[in-house]
Amino acid sequence: MEKPLVGIIMGSDSDWETMKSAAELLKAHAIPYEVAVVSAHRTPERMVDYAKAAQGRGLKIIIAGAGGAAHLPGMVSALTPLPVLGVPVQSKALSGLDSLLSIVQMPPGIPTATFAIGAGGATNAAAFAMRILALDDPRVRDGLERYRQENEARALDGHAKIQP
Ligand SMILES: Nc1c(C(=O)O)ncn1[C@@H]1O[C@H](COP(=O)(O)O)[C@@H](O)[C@H]1O
């Protein structure tokens, strides 16, 4: 087993339905990743341990998803120098706007990337992680080019279908 380069963490197992989209993209491109439930609110000490150990364990990027009062991405970002990519999970009460605003409005000095609400955001967080890894890894660069071509083919296929 290759050592994971990307850590996908989420506040609750109920976020997996959203966050699995990130895992699927990384898996499709053979990028080693790990998955964990880590919560700033419910398991604060585990969060501190996870964030502080991440770089030393060889992780390069953390994708953090959370819903509602989504403090996890920002708190992890405060505890590690690694890039943290935040995914707002769609909440029932406020449709994820709460999650989005909780992640995006970080104070200067603690940068935390913020993606779209829901599974599309999780996919893009993984695609962005690939772009970061591609800076030093030609294999990931090739994978990204394949992914771009697949997306292009899918769009053109859709275009062909709507021609009268
Ligand atoms: N936002 C956070 C954090 C955190 O930010 O640390 N921990 C859990 N949660 C969120 O609570 C929501 C409801 O969780 P449950 O479904 O377990 O009740 C989830 O979307 C989770 O991300």
What does this structure look like?
- The chain is an alpha/beta fold and 164 residues long.
- It contains six helices and five strands.
- The chain has helices spanning 16-28, 44-54, 72-79, 97-104, 119-134, 138-161, and strands at 6-10, 33-37, 61-67, 84-89, 113-114.
- A five-stranded parallel sheet has the order 2-1-3-4-5, sandwiched between helices.
- β4 (84-89), α4 and β5 form a beta-alpha-beta unit.
- The longest helix is centred in the last third of the chain and has 24 residues, at 138-161.
- The N and C termini lie far apart (50 Å).
- The protein binds the ligand Nc1c(C(=O)O)ncn1[C@@H]1O[C@H](COP(=O)(O)O)[C@@H](O)[C@H]1O.
- Ligand C2R binds at residues 10-12, 14-15, 39-42, 66-72, 89.
- It catalyses: 5-carboxyamino-1-(5-phospho-D-ribosyl)imidazole + H(+) = 5-amino-1-(5-phospho-D-ribosyl)imidazole-4-carboxylate.
- Substrate binds at residues 12, 15, 42.
- Keywords: Isomerase, Lyase, Purine biosynthesis.
- Pathway: Purine metabolism; IMP biosynthesis via de novo pathway; 5-amino-1-(5-phospho-D-ribosyl)imidazole-4-carboxylate from 5-amino-1-(5-phospho-D-ribosyl)imidazole (N5-CAIR route): step 2/2.
- Catalyzes the conversion of N5-carboxyaminoimidazole ribonucleotide (N5-CAIR) to 4-carboxy-5-aminoimidazole ribonucleotide (CAIR).
